[in-house]
Amino acid sequence: MIYIYKEMSVATMSKLDLIATAPMGLEAIVARELKELGYTDTVTENGRVNFKGEAVDIARANLWLRTAGRILVNMGRFKATTFDELFEGVKALNWDEWIPADAEFPVNGRSHKSQLTSVPAVQGVVKKAIVEKLKEKHGTEWFPEEGPRYVIEITLLNDEALLTIDTSGSGLHKRGYRKAATEAPLRETMASAIVQLSRWKPDRPLYDPFCGSGTILIEAAMLGWNIAPGLRRSFDAEQWQLVPEALWDEARDEAYDAVKDDVPLQITGSDIDPNAIEIAQEAVRRAGLGKEIKLHVAPVSKIKPQGDYGVVITNPPYGERLGDDKEAELALRQLGKVSLYYPTWSYFIFSPSASVEHYMSKVADKKRKLYNGRIQCNLHSFFGPLPPRNMS
């Protein structure tokens, strides 16, 4: 079935140039997620993964990608060293096929290593060029901007302009289950990346002794049950004529059908802060995982993970974010001592501390540099023995 809207239909949009933005260091994970969803024609660049798709894939990518920041429509790239070149290049793009007469279309901008350095001036030129293009299509001089939202971004890098439309709205890390957060929350996208980089599988126990607001635990449970992370939220493109409601319904039905909520999970978290546990309990309830994730108040020195061949995945507190280096180092020291009593467990510790290996009394099997906001961290991987075959 083809859903036709005005002069352009979903059928004529058979191939779109789409972009999944990626936090620094997560590009390879975003690319892997796209390939697992069936998008094989991908090109990875710094901060983004380019892929081809149809209108329904705007919905699917927004619903399913766990580590991407946003899903953008790539409207075009061209060289722009002067404002005249920028204006003509922008006006030549097919804005009139995307943006209706009543749309709200703000313009955001960035410029790096380019001759056009004034971002406000660049944004103004882009806005003017799009308005001129829409005037030709809609035959009007006035655009009320009271309708669906199309956030446009101009990125200038080395004098090349990239023009995009944001389909997501709020960043994809906003899953909808977290209304409150602890003092130093870990973004949901980063938490999911850490879980994906670990050896954890749903048939193994998982424990986070510094669980904070519970983000690592929830993201792990969503992975274990194959829950699409965007199921509980809305997106800007849901209001667009070119991505009709029927396509969103199709993508959501696919996602609901894919849930594997019969898989038993052994996921537990603790934190020394009772307020953090209250916040985590509320987030777990909102995520619909209240029966699957166990939470309790405890210092790391008192934790008692249950089972063998489990996995600790954690983001310990650290001074740069929480303001007390001594407490942060003490927490790592206690975790190292506890690990001695659980030799079959694996440990994945996301921290900027240079002392992780010292307190764990061994060299990490693998270290991966990632960024928590602007803070450089390492994911320290300490691999324990794999479970026997009959347990896996």
Describe the structure.
The chain has 392 residues and is an alpha/beta fold. It folds into two domains: 4-166, VC0802-like; 188-228 and 258-391, Vaccinia Virus protein VP39 (Rossmann fold, 3-Layer(aba) Sandwich). It is 31% helix and 22% strand. The chain has a seven-stranded mixed β-sheet with strand order 4-5-3-6-9-8-7. A seven-stranded mixed β-sheet has the order 12-11-10-13-14-16-15, covered by helices on one side. A two-stranded antiparallel ribbon has the order 1-2. A hairpin with a 2-residue loop joins strand 4 and strand 5. It is elongated, with a radius of gyration of 23 Å.
Radius of gyration over alpha carbons? 23 Å
β-strand number:
16
Average pLDDT, rounded to a whole number, is 93
CATH topology of the largest domain: Rossmann fold
Question: What are the key terms here?
Answer:
single chain, 392 residues, alpha/beta, Rossmann fold, 2 domains, 7-stranded mixed beta sheet, 11 helices, 16 strands, disordered N terminus, RlmL_1st, rRNA (guanine-N7-)-methyltransferase activity
